């Protein structure tokens, strides 16, 4: 036993339930974790998926608003090895996407271990194994020991809630966009939507459609593009053009086309960043807004665009231009962040912001059996490409070793589980 783990860990090792996993541990049962599990299944590699929530795709099931649809055409959003049903529309609804994910998990016999939140994971140099500690909703602690660790906790694991002066004294309802479901409850109310990303725009639009009065805070610059140009998806057009043209030129063409479709967005208070939309996405990871109707509401004055916030006070917000608005509620559409640094004890592969240091397409494999899926800032299509690479990489080793009938032994496993 001494040579398996550091002596200092000995007591800790025996104080919790310890499970040897024959194959990789995948942390997260969102689209990325499911895609990786499905590809591993096809490679014949057993795995265990750990999920902090009580369901798969918890972001989609629990932390998104009702009117949400995929904003890219379906062919860019399906996961590997199982296409969307043919009768799905071009832009599937959130409900359809969840149904697809449920059937995906069923099809590939993926049964995550729910309510298991990974608290820490570290590589044990001595044994050459990963030690993954979880705590469940019943506060039971379990330690999983494995050779491969796949991080699939997502780019949007935690909500970003900025600390804005006076917000505690505001007195009205304050929620993050992840808690917002529909504008129904806000009828006739003055709502300040903080942020103008895809969430901020769509929440503002939804509020309008439910006869609320939204004011949307735009503190800096934003690229708004039409979702479609001449009936063709803007994203698809960009992908096509990128095959032939340099990025800077595609950016220029996109902006010209956006101008023809949407007009000059700057005249509505939506200043464009100096960098083009694709370059900004590639360098800063900032997604352009794909307009699905909010711009029309801004044009008609139904969504008021306001500058940054100075401070809140009781029932009021003061903006940086000195303007004061009376408001009933606040929706913080202020984005999300990765939570990897809070649990993964590693600093070579992942940077402090919770994303792999190496840019796409190199950020999927670290050292010592560590992998990352879904951190490409390229949505679901990026997750799929990571998943296939990871499964193939692990699958190659697995096949080689099982062919040689090499058996792995470990000095201590109280229980042995795997899904194969
Ligand atoms: C409102 C909204 C709309 C979006 N729409 C689109 C879209 O149309 N197209 C697109 O391509 N992308 C979209 N995205 C981006 C979205 O992040 C991806 O589509 C997709 O959900 C990423 O999948 P994932 O599995 O990487 O991450 P997630 O879906 O976030 O899944 C990660 C899972 O890991 C779990 N987890 C986190 N931490 C732990 C832990 N410590 N222990 C155990 N489990 C943990 C979470 O509970 C979660 O279930 C949208 C994002 C948001 C917020
Ligand atoms: N239908 C869809 O497919 C859909 C819908 C929603 C979201 N998404 C995806 O989900 C991800 C997250 O999107 P998101 O819109 O939630 O987040 P986001 O793109 O990160 O946008 C956050 C917004 O909040 C603003 N903000 C942050 N702190 C602020 C503060 N203190 N004061 C004022 N403004 C502040 C940011 O402004 P700055 O730019 O100035 O920082 C930005 O406008 C993206 O990948 C997005 O594409 C997709």
TrEMBL record:
Record GO biological process: auxin biosynthetic process
Domain of life assignment: Eukaryota
Keywords: Auxin biosynthesis, FAD, Flavoprotein, Monooxygenase, NADP, Oxidoreductase
EC assignment: 1.-.-.-
Reaction equation(s) it catalyzes: indole-3-pyruvate + NADPH + O2 + H(+) = (indol-3-yl)acetate + CO2 + NADP(+) + H2O
Catalytic EC class: oxidoreductase
Cofactor(s) required, per the database record: FAD
Pfam families to which the protein is assigned, alphabetical: FMO-like (PF00743)
Pathway: Plant hormone metabolism; auxin biosynthesis
Any one GO molecular function term: flavin adenine dinucleotide binding
The family this protein is said to belong to: Belongs to the FMO family.
Stated name of the protein: Flavin-containing monooxygenase
Organism the protein comes from: Dipteronia dyeriana
């Amino acid at each position: 036993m001494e040579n398996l783990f550091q002596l200092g860990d000995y007591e800790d090792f025996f104080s919790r339930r310890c499970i040897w996993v024959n194959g990789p541990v995948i942390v997260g049962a969102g689209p990325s974790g499911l895609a990786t599990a499905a590809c591993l299944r096809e490679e014949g590699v057993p795995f265990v998926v750990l999920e902090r929530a009580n369901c798969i795709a918890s972001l989609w099931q629990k932390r998104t608003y009702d009117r949400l649809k995929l904003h890219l055409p379906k062919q860019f959003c399906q996961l590997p090895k199982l296409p969307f049903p043919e009768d799905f529309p071009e832009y599937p609804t959130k409900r359809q996407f969840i149904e697809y994910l449920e059937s995906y998990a069923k099809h590939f016999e993926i049964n995550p271990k729910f309510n298991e939140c990974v608290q820490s994971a570290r590589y044990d140099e001595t044994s050459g194994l990963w030690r993954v500690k979880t705590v469940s909703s019943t506060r039971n602690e379990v330690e999983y020991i494995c050779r491969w660790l796949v991080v699939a906790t997502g780019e949007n694991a935690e909500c970003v809630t900025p600390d804005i002066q006076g917000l505690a004294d505001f007195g009205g309802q304050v929620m993050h966009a992840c808690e917002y479901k529909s504008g129904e409850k806000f009828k006739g109310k003055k709502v300040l939507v903080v942020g103008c990303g895809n969430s901020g725009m769509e929440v503002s639009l939804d509020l309008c459609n439910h006869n609320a009065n939204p004011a949307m805070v735009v503190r800096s610059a934003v690229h708004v593009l039409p979702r479609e140009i001449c009936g063709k998806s803007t994203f698809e057009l960009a992908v096509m053009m990128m095959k032939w043209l340099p990025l800077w030129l595609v950016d220029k063409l996109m902006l010209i086309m956006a101008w023809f479709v949407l007009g000059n967005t700057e005249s509505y208070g939506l200043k464009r960043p100096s960098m083009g939309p694709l370059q900004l996405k590639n360098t800063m990871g900032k997604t352009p807004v794909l307009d699905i109707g909010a711009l029309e509401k801004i044009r008609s004055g139904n969504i008021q665009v306001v500058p940054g916030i100075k401070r809140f006070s009781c029932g009021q917000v003061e903006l940086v231009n000195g303007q004061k608005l009376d408001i009933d509620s606040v929706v913080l559409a202020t984005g999300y962040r990765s939570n990897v640094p809070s649990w993964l004890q590693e600093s070579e592969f992942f940077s402090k912001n919770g994303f792999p240091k190496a840019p796409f397409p190199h950020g999927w494999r670290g050292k010592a059996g560590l992998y990352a899926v879904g951190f490409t800032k390229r949505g679901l299509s990026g997750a799929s490409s990571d998943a296939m690479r990871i499964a193939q990489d692990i699958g190659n080793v697995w096949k080689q070793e099982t062919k040689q009938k090499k058996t792995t032994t470990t000095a201590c496993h109280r229980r042995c589980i795997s899904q194969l």
